[in-house]
Every structure is written in C-alpha cells, then in structure tokens.
Amino acid sequence: MTEESTAHNGIAPLANVARLAQMIKRLQSREYGLPGLGCCYGRAGLGKTTAAIYATNSLNACHVEVMPIGGVKGMLSMIVTELGLKPGRTTEALFTQAAQHLAQTQRVLIIDEADAILKDKCIEILRRLHDISNAPLIFMGEEQLPQKLCKWDRVHSRVLSWVGMEEATSVDLDHLAKIYARGVTIAPQLKAALLTASRGSLRNMSTNLAHVREVASRRGVSSLGMDEWKTESFHTGEAPAPRGLVSRSHRRGFAA
Prior knowledge:
Layout: H1 3-8, H2 15-28, E1 37-41, H3 48-59, E2 62-65, H4 71-82, H5 91-105, E3 109-112, H6 120-133, E4 137-141, H7 145-149, H8 153-156, E5 159-164, H9 170-180, E6 185-186, H10 188-198, H11 202-219, E7 223-224, H12 226-229, H13 248-251
Parallel strand pairs: 1-4, 1-5, 2-3, 3-4, 6-7
Helix pairs in contact: 2-3, 4-5, 5-6, 9-11, 10-11
C-alpha cells in the first residue's frame, strides 16, 4: 500500500504503529516453547487503538475492546464475535470456540482496554486461552498496565515483549498532516508550535491539524504560518480554567 493511499484510508505510517507491528512479528516468529504474550502500554492519546486497527486490517489480528461489564462470559462473547464466529450459549462453549479457532488460525488476539478486565477470572481465562491455542495474545492498556500485571505471576512471567507507546514526533506530524490538513501547506514555525502544544499526543495533534485545515478553508488560503495563526488557539487536551463567578445582577440580565 502506498503512503498516499494509506493516508486516505485513515491510517498513517506512524512510529507507534510500527512498534506494535514489530511486536506482533516477534511474537509470531518466536522459538518453539517460548511464551507468546505481549503488553503494549501508554497514556491516552498516543495511538494505541490506531495501531491495533492497523494490525487488524494489515496483519489479520483480532482486536477486541473489552468492557468492564459482563464478566468472563461477556469477554469471551466479544472475542468469539470479533473472530467472526457465532457465539455459543455457555461460557464453556465460548471458551472452546475461541481456543479452537485461535489454535487453527494462530491469529494474534489484541485485548484493548485491558485495564478494565484486571480480575482474577478474566486474566486466568485469557492466560489459558493463550496456553491452549499457543496463539499470540497482547494486552493493551494504560501506562501502569505492566505494573498491574505483576499481580499475576503466571501471566507476567509469560510476557515475551513489552512495548511502550512513545510521544508523537515531527515525523508523525507530517504523516498526520496528509490526512487531517491535506491540501494545506503549514509553515515550519507553525508546525513546531503545533507539535509543542499537542504535548506528544497523537489525538491532540490530529485535532489541531484538523483545525488548521478549517482555518485555511475559512480564510480561503492554501498555506498558513504563525502570522495568520495569531488569533487562533491550539487544543492541548487540558480542561478550561474555572470561570470567575458572575454577579447576580449579570445572571439576571441587568447591567452592572
């Protein structure tokens, strides 16, 4: 797939996408007898789910965004459904379906939002699913996920690869600009300011690039620099500062 077509499909060749892809290839090519668990972690906004979607589309992985409700049966039902199977009625049937399918296909199973199911039964079922099928399984979650997994030694000791998602770079910005600010030439100083304001978050960066395109469209121009941006603001991901108390007379519609 060319870079241009990749960009228009919404998945840019970002560094964190490459990190997850390399982890998957390592798990798939591991020597016989080695464990096949992986852990991908990082704070919100670094593009973990974007990387998982790429792995699903390009590497035939099975990406499951688990929920903090439903227990073991709900989790297994989601896995079986994402594997393209009709879910069985019982927990045992669901586990057997998932284990047999993964054993036959050796598809990589990515458990996204893994922080939500860090319970003894769910973790043990996933470990058993990996052990029986021998298929790679990746836990994906927030920055503290590796430390949280330490609670389960039989899981933690089976992790062959730990990959932390990194903050976005100027190279990532250039790739994302082809998607969210396509057709707009962004001056180097504005790019640098946007990168700083985005605070390493791919999500913030994408939002800011989309705003750049909106501003360019509104002004009818095809290029933007710091001079044109002076009246605009960046999205930093921070909540707005508390507003001052409005006087009672203003709230009632009277002049001060």
